[in-house]
Amino acid sequence: MKGRMISPGKAEGKAIVSPDPIGFYGGIDAKTGIVIEKGHPLEGKSVTNKILIFPCGKGSTVGSYVIYGLKKNGVAPAGIINKETETIVATGVILAGIPCVDQIDISNINDGDNIFLDADNGVVEIKN
Amino acid sequence: MYLTKDEEKILNGQKGDVLERLFRLLVRLGDIYKADKMIPVGSVQVAGVSYKSIGDPGTEFLEDMASKNAKVKVLTYLNPAGMDLENWKKIGFPEDFAKNQLRIMDAFKKMGIVVTSTCTPYLAGNLPRFREHIAWSESSAVSFSNSVIGARTNREGGPSALAAAICGVTPNYGLHIWENRQPTVKIDVSADLNFNSDYGALGYFVGKQVKNKIPYFTGIKNADTDQLKSLGAAMAASGAVALYHVEGLTPEADLVNKDGLETINVSKKELNDTFEKLSSSKNPDVVILGCPHASLREISNLADKLKGKHLKKPVWICTSRVMKEASDRMGFTDIIEKAGGNIVADTCMVVSPIEQMGYKSTGVNSGKAANYLPGFCKQDVFFADINKLIEVQL
Prior knowledge:
The structure holds 2 protein chains of 2 kinds. Chain A is an alpha/beta fold.
């Protein structure tokens, strides 16, 4: 699949797919990489070293710092794929240097798929 | 994107490292979102102030910028800090937390940022005009300035707002452009809205439904700025709503195109369900009002309700330092403190370490606070109107 490069780089990993938007601030613990938002479909799961897939961001604009913090603390996702990346997530992944692509039909990707993300060229490959 | 000769010099590093790094972030965002050029901003509001929110990585990032003499070019205000910056000891904020919080404030001050710490800058001296381009980041302040004032800002991330402050510009895309400010969904409200908490429940429900769309509300007959503040804050927290219009009440409502929109109806039932869904407790350890920061009208209202009463369990109201000073002068602070309550300035419940202060459940009248407290402060929540909240604390 071909999308738009938000933040450059290449990454490989297992897909963790959220059908709901993610608000990083109050949604993911920057120290552990675990989703903490009550009632969120990914609650209790770790995003560390995975390819994190969700439709779009939501919630607080402090989310950019949480993404940056995840990276600095060594618990960030290896890459991010969105339907639509808004400014908060874009700022976070650019600052943190996490490869990120959007404008992808994420309904084609399932939890646990092996994903190769070539953000430089905006390409997402499912290698099962 | 078109860059002026001066802007190209910044991008080539001829004006220093810091400016290059921050301007590069703005150019990247501009390229992604197809901005045609940079536009000057009238003011900036920066989120990512509490040590609890940004931690050591964020603190080091800010200290690095400050040590390299980064300075803001326009009036720049700050989001709430993680504690009351003057009375933190008395209220009981942890000492090591305070030390880190003060490091962050120092870094901001060195950059020339006004260390105001409020999510309601428009009540504290940073008031944009209709159609002014600004770069704000606090999600409820973005919603208020776009919707109630008619200024123009995208939802900036903390670092992209800081970059706009230091470069004095922002990329021209998204809500800076009139075509993108048109409503994309209609919300018809048949429920009666009485308390500020009703607007919070409405906002929470709508934000969940519409995510990042632009709602056009009909059926809201009258609402003051406190109620619109509550509505917008909740929609920005449960969804990513940065702009809404209300028929007859907000400045762009008459000007936008509202033909052929999908309609969502909100009745009393949806509001009641929202109150129920967001309440996991009816017996709060502490009640915290002022999310977003209380106006003087809200503080005065609380003082009226607490006059001559004695609270068995604590009630806090969070506000900006500016409102707190007006409240001190009017004697509202005195009334609230005599009843056993607290006015807390510079901070708010969501960004302060309340779970470390022994509280397990919190009563709130804010849809935004009810959204964040369970995840971020590990609190059970009682979401209700101000009368019910005070009743359970007496």
